[in-house]
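gibberellin 2beta-dioxygenase
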Amino acid sequence: MFDTENKCDPPFADRYGSLFDSGTTCGGSWDGGIVGACELPLIDLKALRSGGDEGERRACMSAIAKASSEWGFFQVLNHGVRRELLEEMRREQVKVFGMPFEKKSSCRLLNDSYRWGTATATSVKEFSWSEAFHIPLSKISEEGVCHGELSTMREVMEKLAVAMSDLARLLAGILAENLDHPKQFFEENCNESTCFLRLNRYPPCPFSPEMYGLVPHTDSDFLTILFQDQVGGLQLMKDSKWVSVKPNPDTLIVNVGDLFQAWSNDKYKSVEHKVMVNAKVERYSIAYFMCPSYDTMIGSFKEPSHYRNFTFGEYRRQVQEDVRKSGHKVGLPRFLI
């Protein structure tokens, strides 16, 4: 049975111990295992920002579209988000996660955005061994969001939110342009009132080498931008097999979300991915989610459409209902015509 003598923060054993069994695994026994490591398509965005050669710009745009169609994931260099800012955010992130669990969970830190474990899990395969702060960009500047030991955190998050938003709009505009579709859609519907920053921590898990830090899923947004550390653990589905993504300290990872797949009429792919925890080392990551308002209509950019029209709010409610009833997300197949 689950070894409650191994204490950890958050207190997974105390809350979820009944889910775990020493003979139960997640990553290798029932979802295909790992066939190897991969390096994501690497794209240098310098040509987009320098205002230089048009041929180089077109080649960069083509590479982004190809990776979004074939992989659903890619990594970018010269992305415009300063390395010093990312490292500063990492230091603030380590500081907040280092607080006692009771303070993280009960003191309404960062707009009361703290989450841990998986409240809906009925088995270990539905459980995420992780904790996070999921923060709306519009809430970062509010009074009381950062105070005391976190007094320096607001300014760092504000700067990071601006930089990530600029990058997300740039990439979304390129993907729209590749479809001969106006990029104004994203400028009009995705802003600080609808997008999020998520600070993630994956504590060491001594109980199983195959525990999920984040269960297999696709992202329910347009685009996600990820900054991860060197521990590794991110895996994605490629050609019906799980592959492990090699960390690269000089890049940001970008992946297509469900809304972009529907909006592009399946031209771009929202790919299933997961995070596996480490038995001895904690892992940190920072994610930016490009989302529209809940009443934004997500229609395919051309007809005949593979999906019926739906709002982002409708999509979110359906995802939540499926998770509540079955323990897992169904996603876009619910909205196929």
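thats it. Residues 199 and 286 are 5 Å apart (CA to CA). The longest helix spans residues 153-178. bye
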